[in-house]
């Protein structure tokens, strides 16, 4: 008899990221898609709504009921900051491992969820970005900052994204800040003719957020030095780019205890 599959419930399955997630879970032999959550649907077959074969899985309008009825092992959440916190609380309370792509949580909240996960002896993950290329961009940025500490970030996302700067940009800034001293950039007497022109300030580093239709998720990390610049750029052309990282995360949260923030912490 083979190993028991990881039973996955997807919250926000009707959305763009949710649809791709359901497909990815369905296509992996180690995962079992057992249910979906949407506040407007209850008892409807997921296949009927998404338009492709999703087995016998149905929609629930109550997360707790979904996790209990399906005996879920992992909850994947790609909703929004207004509901994800309650979803995390409920999943951890029921001993279900959360894999979350929604951003906007505070370090204090993350620390609390980490403690609760440890108390229940389960693993969990909150990842600003599941694209492996984006994780590498963050790592390379931290490496470059040791030698080129003057840096600005331009991140570009679709116009339906709620938080700015993006979680990926914030995580990149945090990683760079560990490698360089906080310092001002630009002329000390510079003046913004239009407020906000120089972007947000994170320990002297500037971050600029672009929100336009047509984008998915993109980021440039620009380093400046004497007579030279270095640009590290990652582009997610479509939402499929996130799926290998999502599938990998569902398996990895089975192997540790506590809540990890950032997929890079699970890579070699």
List the defining traits of the structure above.
single chain, 268 residues, alpha/beta, Rossmann fold, 2 domains, seven-stranded parallel β-sheet, 8 helices, 12 strands, 25% strand, 4-hydroxy-tetrahydrodipicolinate reductase, EC 1.17.1.8, oxidoreductase, NAD
Task: Chart the SSEs and their pairings.
Layout: E1 6-11, H1 16-26, E2 31-37, H2 46-50, E3 58-60, H3 63-69, E4 74-77, H4 81-93, E5 97-100, H5 107-120, E6 123-126, H6 132-145, E7 150-157, H7 167-177, E8 200-202, E9 205-211, E10 217-225, E11 228-236, H8 243-252, E12 258-261
Parallel strand pairs: 1-2, 1-4, 2-3, 4-5, 5-6, 6-12, 7-9
Antiparallel strand pairs: 7-10, 8-9, 10-11
Helix pairs in contact: 1-8, 4-5, 6-7
Architecture overview:
The protein has 268 residues and is an alpha/beta fold. The protein folds into two domains: 6-126 and 240-266, NAD(P)-binding Rossmann-like Domain (Rossmann fold); 132-237, 2-Layer Sandwich (Dihydrodipicolinate Reductase, domain 2). 32% of the residues lie in helices and 25% in strands. It has eight helices and twelve strands. The strands form two sheets. It has a seven-stranded parallel sheet with strand order 3-2-1-4-5-6-12, with helices on both faces. It has a five-stranded mixed sheet with strand order 8-9-7-10-11, with helices on one face. Helix 1 (16-26) packs across helix 8 and helix 6 (132-145) runs parallel beside helix 7 (167-177). It is elongated, with a radius of gyration of 20 Å. NADP(+) binds at residue 39. It holds the Pfam family DapB_C. Catalyzes the conversion of 4-hydroxy-tetrahydrodipicolinate (HTPA) to tetrahydrodipicolinate. The active site is at residues 157, 161. It catalyses: (S)-2,3,4,5-tetrahydrodipicolinate + NADP(+) + H2O = (2S,4S)-4-hydroxy-2,3,4,5-tetrahydrodipicolinate + NADPH + H(+); (S)-2,3,4,5-tetrahydrodipicolinate + NAD(+) + H2O = (2S,4S)-4-hydroxy-2,3,4,5-tetrahydrodipicolinate + NADH + H(+).
